Structure of Aquaporin Z:
Amino acid sequence: MKKLLAEFFGTYWLVFGGCGSALFAAGYVTPTGVHLGIGFLGVALAFGLTVLTMAYAVGHISGGHFNPAVSFGLWASGRFSAKDLLPYIVAQCVGAIAAAGSLFYIWSGKTGNVIDNTSAGAFASNGFGKFSPDGYSMISCFTAEFLLTMFFLLVILGATDKFANGKFAGIAIGLALTLIHLISIPITNTSVNPARSLSQALFTQGEPLGQVWLFWVAPILGAIVGGLIYKNLLQKTDND
C-alpha cells in the first residue's frame, strides 16, 4: 500500500506541477500588460522538477515511476514484476486525475476561465492534427511520443543501473524529462505519460479525449522498446 500511495502522490505532483505551470504561469500577463510568463522553458523545467523532487522524496518507496509507460518499460527490462503493473497504473491514473481535479477547481475560480475543447492545448491537453499546438500530423505525433519515451526509458534504466552512481539518478531523469518537453511541447504539448494525458483529457472532453488513445499507445510501445533495448543491448553484466 505504501508503494501505491507513493505512486499516487508522485503522479499527483507531476500533473499538478507540470500542467499547473502550463495553465497558470506559461503565458501570464500582469494587469498592466507586463509579460511575466515562464513560457515553454519554464513549463519544461516544471515537469522536470516535479519528477526530480519526487524521485528523491518517494522514489525509495515505490521506485518512482509516476507514469504507466515507465512501469511498462521497467517490466520489459526485467526490473518490475508483471503482477504489480495494474496496481501501479491504477494508482498513477488516480493520482493524475485527482491533480487535474485540483487544477480545475483552482482554475475555474477566475471569471472567464472556460475550457475551449475546440482548440489545441486546452486545459494542458495533448493532441495531434488540429489539436497539436503547431499542427503536426498523427504520424508525426505518434513518432515523437514513441521515440521520446523510448529514450526516456534508456535514461531511467541507465541512471538507476547498479553500476551507475544512483545518487544522481533523480537529477538525470528530471533533466531528461525537461529536455523531452523542450523538444515536443509544440508537437503534442508533450505527454510521454498516459496518466498525465488521460487526466487532462477527462476534464477537456471533446476531441482531445477522443485522441487520448495515441498518448497511451505510443508512450507504452516506446517504453517497452526502450526497456528491451537496454536489457538486451546496453545492460552491463558482472562479466563485462
User: Anything to note?
Assistant: The longest helix spans residues 2-25.
